[in-house]
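Hello Y.,

Per our agreement to keep a running log of every chain we model this quarter, I'm adding this entry. I've kept the format consistent with earlier entries: sequence first, then predicted structure.
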Amino acid sequence: MKPTPIKKEIIDAAIRNYGIQDFSMATIREVKQIAADAEQQSGVEFIKMEMGIPGLAAAKVGVNAQIKALQDGIACLYPDIQGYVELKKQASRFVKAFINVDINAEGCIPVCGSMQGGFASFLTCTQADNKRNKVLFIDPGFPLQKMQLKVQGMPFETFDVYNFRGVKLREKLESYLEQGDFCAIVYSNPNNPTWICFTEEELQIIGELSRKYDVIIIEDLAYFAMDFRKDLSQPFAPPYQPSVAHYTDNYILLISGSKAFSYAGERIAVTCISDKLFHRHYADLAARYEGLPFGLVFSTRMLYALSSGTSHSAQYAMAEMFRAACDGEYNFRQEVIVYGERAHRLKAIFKKYGFVIVYDKDNDEDIADGFYFTIGYPGMTSGELARELMYYGVSAINLGTTGSEQHGLRICTSFINDNQYDLLDERMAIFAENNPR
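Predicted structure for the entry above:
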């Protein structure tokens, strides 16, 4: 066997030092820290693919608006718990311009990133009906959303959608919903970690079942319009960002500034609640929160208790990014399409050396190239592959931590540098030689 770029002893010692008994269960943060320690000790550059952090500069249109707001003195004022009026207006326009859905500005509420929007949504949904407090995740998905429910002490169930695409999704969803104790369904689209995108047929199925079983759909649009197979960035013109909102009025949309606008550090997003759901009165919510409807419980009770609103100046940034996008002055897709270009090149290298794309299709169509993709290697479990790649200076996370039942890893393209394609090619050539299929 050829020597690995990083001595195995260094990686193994780092894993032991963190007390990790089973590397297949290592968290993103643990993988990141082990890679950093190994890089420092060995002096060998790591190709870091584990963290889903934007690798691009924040949108200038937002930065300039935020700076001006700060210079104008906004930092000394508490934001309204319902949100900055202009942001609410522009969020409503943005949803119309890029999803082709009408949501009143009152239902567009700024939050401290989609993480907080999800947390508050879970609180409100699970308390709406005391007989139905369970949440269903269409996995793979973002592990921290499940942690949020664990923190809240709320029950949830999950299933891997890998074998249930297309019409098969209906029967699988109904097998859970017919139990009668689910209040919400959660998924991301495009999907973290696999980058699959639900088809219109699948979204219609989800929407129809949400009406039939009266469950709220929490649609995480963290990677808004980043299905680069088609241009979803032209305001008020098709094609639009696919959404369950076209098939039901029982939904919450989480629209983040973090990825599409590279504004992750300011923790800004909007939670967009359908008009019908915003004004809906649930008996159990009304009894607990002075007769308030769903939307006002979300903002004036849940968000108020959590943080009393979100960064005032960041709301000015988000408002201006939305406005500029809607007015055709700022094409956010052009700034982030580089992720797709990176994925295309990385996939080619991995396939060259015998790797497979685990989640490879949206029904009959190849998945888009984007922020994430998944790889597997025949004969290796997820844990084995994750650990083995560390010896070659490549860090990624195990799909098992995301609710997937498939063996493989999530690859993130955000921190790939131009010099690393040749580096990855060299290292995977050695990997393939040392691990013949």
